[in-house]
Amino acid sequence: MKIRVKNKWNDKEKQRTPEETGSVLSFNFWKIASANVLHMENEGFQTDTHFQRLDVIAELTAFLVHVADRVISAKQYPVEDRQALITALALNLAKTMHDNRRDVSDNKETDFRAQYIALMNERMREYSNFTFDEDNQPGFQLRRCVGEHVREVMGKKDNKWIPDQVIDIEIPDAMKAFKKVTRGVL
Question: pTM higher than 0.85, yes or no?
Answer without folding.
Answer: yes
